Amino acid sequence: MTASTSEAKQDCLGCRVVGSATFASVGAYALWQSRAAAPGTLLQKRITTVLGLAFLTGGIIRWY
C-alpha cells in the first residue's frame, strides 16, 4: 500500500483519545510533583515543570 506525500495518516479516535489522555496525565502528574510542598531542589522543580508543560502540550498536539 502506497500513500502519496500529500495524504497524512490519520489515527483512529481511540488511539487519539488514549494517546492524548496519557500525555495529559503524565504532564499533570509532573506539574503536581513540581509544587512547592514536594521534595526536591528548586532546579529539579523547574525541570519538572518544563517537562509537565511539554507533556501537556504534547497531549494537545496529539489530539489534533
UniProtKB/TrEMBL annotation:
Pfam families in the record: DMAC1_Dmo2
Limits of the Distal membrane-arm assembly complex protein 1-like domain: 11-60
InterPro entries given in the database record: DMAC1-like_dom (IPR028036)
Superkingdom, natural source: Eukaryota
Name of the protein in its database record: Distal membrane-arm assembly complex protein 1-like domain-containing protein
Species name: Amanita thiersii Skay4041
Lineage: Eukaryota, Fungi, Dikarya, Basidiomycota, Agaricomycotina
